[in-house]
Amino acid sequence: MAITAACEQATRIKNGNRDERMKNFTNAIVRVPSNSCGNGLTTANLGRPNAEQTRTQFGHYINILSDLELTVIVLPANPAFPDGHFVEDTAVVTPEFAIITRPGATSREGEVVTIEPVLARYRRIERIRQGHMDGGDVLMVGKRFFVGLSNRTDQAGIREFTAIVEKYGYRVDVIEVMAGLHLKSIVNFVGRNTLLLDADNAGHPAFADFDHIIVGQNEEYAGNTLWINDNLITPEGYPETLAKLKQLGLKIITTPTSEFKKMDGGLTCLSLRF
Ligand code: GLY
């Protein structure tokens, strides 16, 4: 799908013939990257992202989600928020409710305003009101949450979050993020009771109930692999991680992510799945 200015209207791509029993996700919310995306926050030192190439890679991404039979809700670009296409940071969505976060970077705080009304069509809304939290720090596996304590997610945000999710029977483990932007920059669930993560996090007792696939030191970026309905979407160009993931026996789709990497972002950051 080509992402053009004409496409910068809320668009819905709907697929039929689903087998709901096999699916953990049926919907995804995404936002078209703006021409201002080169002004976003980053520590990557990989050069300025090209907006046109960013939208081409984003187009590949939403085509993959659509091919996996998700209904993809495409929100228009918003130049006021250069990081706004990283919608994952604005909310945490569970089967029962959605929590609107309070992003930890000042320039991103306003991103939640246009996400809340969209999620409110699908879920009861809860909110982080005082602390800070980026959704990229929140990994949900069944009724468990692993929450990164990071430069973006603080103790106050985690306390509020925990009070909300415990009402619904969820358990929270807090993981200190020692490297990378968010917890999910390097720790992700990839199906089959397995976490994809780096060697440092693999030793954390909170992850002991899972099998582990360890991401090599030169392939940390591939730790941000996205699991959707027993398919894996992983960045292209990380052969060791790809070989390890293949052992899970799931369908694996690789896709280019060079521009998102320049922005400290990855595949999970680009959507809210539910
Ligand atoms: N560029 C993504 C972020 O820093 O939030």
For the biggest sheet, the summary is: 4 strands, mixed
Question: What is the domain tally?
Answer: 1
Mean pLDDT: 93
Low-confidence stretches: 1-21
Beta strand count: 16
Using the coordinates shown, work out and report the CATH topology: L-arginine/glycine Amidinotransferase, Chain A
User: Briefly, what CATH class?
Assistant: Alpha Beta
What is the CATH architecture assignment? 5-stranded Propeller
Q: Could you estimate the helical fraction of the residues in percent?
A: 10-25%
Radius of gyration: 17 Å
Q: Give a list of the ligands.
A: glycine
DSSP helix count? 6
Read across the widest sheet, the strand sequence of neighbours is 1-3-2-16
Under CATH, the homologous superfamily reads L-arginine/glycine Amidinotransferase, Chain A
Distance separating the two termini: 22 Å
Residue fraction in strands = 15-25%
Shape: globular
| Pattern of helices and strands | EEHEEEHEEEHEEEHEEEHEHE
What structural category arises from helix and sheet content? alpha/beta
SSE arrangement:
Layout: E1 11-13, E2 27-31, H1 51-67, E3 71-75, E4 91-93, E5 97-100, H2 112-119, E6 124-127, E7 138-141, E8 144-149, H3 155-167, E9 171-176, E10 188-189, E11 194-197, H4 199-202, E12 211-214, E13 226-228, E14 231-235, H5 239-246, E15 251-255, H6 258-262, E16 272-273
Parallel strand pairs: 2-3, 5-6, 8-9, 11-12, 14-15
Antiparallel strand pairs: 1-3, 2-16, 4-5, 7-8, 10-11, 13-14
Bound molecules: glycine.
